[in-house]
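>> received
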Amino acid sequence: MKISIAAAIGLLALSVTEAVKVNPLPAPRNITWATSGPVKIDGNFKIVGPKHDILTKAYARHANLIKKERW
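>> returned
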């Protein structure tokens, strides 16, 4: 029995899309970072130093993420 080229391409495309959907890492169940509890950071925390556009934007993104995720 011969497999047509179209069927072979279809099977290949199906296997590729299935491979992309798989996450090889397991979902975390319980994460313990430290025994002392959360670290309190003032909401007005700022880094003092020379202005650098890339670092300023990166810090702002991370600070917003930390506030959003409530780390």
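>> The chain is about 50% helix and 0% strand.
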